[in-house]
Amino acid sequence: MDTTWLHPRDELVETMARIYRYKMTTTSGGNLSILDPNGDIWITPSRVDKGRLQPTDIVCVHPDGKRTGLHPPSSEFPFHREIYRRRPDIKAIVHAHPGALVAFSICRKLPDTRVQTVANAVCGKVAYAPYACPGSEELGKNISETFAAGADCVMLENHGVVIGGTDLHDAFQRFETLEFIAQTLVKAASLGEIKTLSAIELPERTVPDFAELPALPPSNREKELRTQICDFAHRAYQQRLLISTVGSFSTRLENDRFLITPRRRDRLQLEPGALVVATRRACEPGKRPSRTALLHALIYEQNPDVGAIINAQPSHASAFCMTSAELSTHTIPESYIVLNDAPKLPHACVVADAERIATEVSLGKRPVVLIENEGALIVGKNVLDAFDRLEVLEATTEALFLARPLGPLVPMPESAIDELRKVFGVS
């Protein structure tokens, strides 16, 4: 989201509403702030319902300590002020108590972001700050010292998390990504040993430079597909099938051209004009396609029947990607009919290993594959078909987790699978 023209009050309210809507804080928990260039700190108020926060509720604390606003600032203002003092590069702060990160904080463990390249790149260094009473100067000292030592995300013992960023959107994306990784790690821990990436595998490979495509006026079909991709990306975000920093959608246009989501653009804020027309070697002038662009181009080249592609890291399915556990789609008929066997591939980089990955999918036999420490790759006849597979994949894996406390999994017998192959034409 471009926040250039948003007043800090409005930006804080919008961000808190998003955090609250997706259950990453409670009515009374958490606080956000923005540091203005003139030294003013805009911060959420103390004891005001986070679910109904209004711009008029936001408090401004001036450099001389005077404040403007209807309410007192958050009781944890001291640590915001100290972080800004110790880390001049930080211009916004998110503090909240989301469930998975609280689970890590009360077990005194750090979520290991080395399980995904994008998460590791987005979150930066994660560290712990010792416990101190909320709102105390001691807590401010503990947190600010941890930030001063180079941390980007600071876990608080028996408390929650504090995250800094170059602006509020940057801080929010780090926060959301770290919580999503924590949720996935909690699920993966019940499946077995969690696999992390090595120092060689971790660097996020950027997409190669693209030449410029000749500018062409969009056809009505392209306009329709732009709107469709945005609608499904928004729906996927709202259903937590992807988050602001991770996931890509594309659809075939004509000849070797396709439409794909842009790189590092908030998935919930996608608009039709932000999508990128691309080919294997070129894209719209002035735009950056998703890092999966080359992979998608190769899949379209090799599979004329594929009309849409999705890369995503929904938490239940991604838990299988982080462990050696095998995913069984022989659970209910829909799972097998829609997903086929959904095999898991060894870790591969969607940029550097695009040619190898592209050979692993096909609309008939392998419409869904999991990639270790990367996520799901899904193809479909069109965007709706691919999105349906994404939904079914996450619903299937969630059911497998819900079934674990109930007893051993009883898959459909092979005779039932043979019948589904015959009746529904599953390859």
TrEMBL record:
Q: Which GO terms describe its cellular component?
A: cytosol
Q: Does the keyword Mitochondrion apply?
A: no
Provide the alphabetized UniProt keywords: Lyase, Metal-binding
Q: Which residues form the Class II aldolase/adducin N-terminal domain?
A: 10-186, 227-401
Identify the domain of life. Bacteria
Mind telling me which InterPro entries this protein's record contains?
Aldolase_class_II_sugar_metab, Aldolase_II/adducin_N, Aldolase_II/adducin_N_sf
Q: Name one GO molecular function term.
A: aldehyde-lyase activity
Q: Name one Pfam family in it.
A: Aldolase_II
User: Please, one GO biological process term?
Assistant: pentose catabolic process
Name of the protein this chain belongs to: Aldolase
